[in-house]
Specification:
The protein is built from 7 helices and 7 strands; from the N terminus they run αααββββαβββααα. The chain has 207 residues and is of the alpha+beta class. A 7-stranded antiparallel sheet has the order 2-1-5-6-7-4-3, covered by helices on one side.
Length: 207
């Protein structure tokens, strides 16, 4: 079957239509009180970045609700960097291209809060001490100067049934993490060693 590729905005609009004015114009330049409440309740977000050539990365970020985001003012937020795998793909991108996109999730909610802006990596600042979790200070903070804020509707979460426990089967359809680490990541440790590593004590080493 021949593929039909869309090559222009006119072709795209002819297929999907145009947004209603309230959707088209919903982006705002800074945080309002409901945005602050959303950020305080969100324990998880996705961070999108691109390098100088436009190659993309999307990285998950998580902390307890109330600790994920530090609001500096209505136009500026900070996210903590905790110990991880040290790849720093998104942060290396930010050094080359500061534009970032963030989507903040509240468990059980279908809508999400989107923030787009410009990121900076901050190694030392007084507010880092206020971002401690379990007594651990962040390694650094991603400070985002907000350019636009808006909400995404719930359609994607409703279609995916993401919050419906009866749809969850995390180990029935794909191999467990230890098997993936061995087969795909070529980790030299044995499967038993990897099961132990990703076992109950894994959560004790988060901070």
């Amino acid at each position: 079957m021949t593929w039909t590729e869309i090559r222009s905005e006119a072709e795209l609009r002819a297929l999907i239509g145009t947004p209603l004015p309230q959707v088209r114009d919903k982006a705002r330049p800074g945080l309002v009180e409901s945005d602050r409440a959303w950020l305080a309740a969100s324990p998880f977000c996705m961070l999108a970045t691109a390098d100088a050539e436009g190659r993309l990365d999307v990285s998950p970020k998580g902390d307890p609700a109330g600790s994920l985001v530090h609001v500096l003012d209505e136009h500026t937020i900070a996210l903590a960097e905790r110990p991880g795998n040290r790849r720093a793909d998104g942060y290396l991108n930010i050094l080359a291209n500061p534009q970032v996109g963030l989507d903040f999730v509240i468990p059980g909610r279908g809508d999400t809060l989107r923030i787009n802006g410009r990121g900076r990596l901050i190694a030392q600042a007084p507010f880092l001490d206020r971002m401690r979790v379990r007594g651990a200070r962040p390694l650094l903070a991603l400070v985002v100067e907000i350019e636009e804020v808006f909400h995404h509707c719930a359609k994607a979460f409703l279609r995916s049934r993401l919050w419906e426990p009866e749809t969850w089967a995390p180990t029935e359809t794909v191999p467990r993490r230890a098997v993936l680490a061995k087969q795909v990541d070529h980790d030299p440790r044995s499967e038993q060693e990897l099961d132990d590593y990703y076992g109950p004590t894994y959560a004790e080493r988060l901070y």
